[in-house]
Prior knowledge:
With 121 residues, this protein is mainly beta. It has one domain (19-115). It contains 1 helix and 8 strands. The strands form 2 sheets. Strands 1-2-3-4 form a 4-stranded antiparallel beta sheet, with no helix packed on it. The longest helix is centred in the middle third of the chain and has 8 residues, at 52-59.
Amino acid sequence: MVHTAYDSFELLSDCPTKIEAVKSYGSKLLLGCSDGSLRIYAPDSSDSNRSPTADYHWQTQELLKQPYVIERNISGFSRKPVVSMEVLEPRELLLSLSESLAFHRLPSFETIAVITKAKGA
C-alpha cells in the first residue's frame, strides 16, 4: 500500500518575477517578489468577492484547489526583495522581513511601523 503525504496541484503559473516569500491569508496567496513587490492572488471564483478578513475566518487558512488570479500588485512594497513574511492573525498584521522589519495592517497593507537596522535578522 502506498501512502501519499500530500496532494500536489498548481495554483498559479503566471508570476512574472521571482518569488522570494509566500504566505497565505485566508484563501489568498501573498507573494513577496525579488523586485520588492507584493503580489496578492485570489481564487478565480465568485467566492473571492468576500473581504479578506471575512474570507480568512470563513476559510480558516485553507487554499482552494482552483486557479488563482492576481487581485492586486503593490509595486513599492519594499526596496529590496522580501525575504520572509508572517501573518499575525489576532492583530490582523503582516510582518515582512527585507532590509528592515515592517508591520503592515491587513487587509489594506498600509505600513504601520518599520524597524531599521534589521540586517541579519
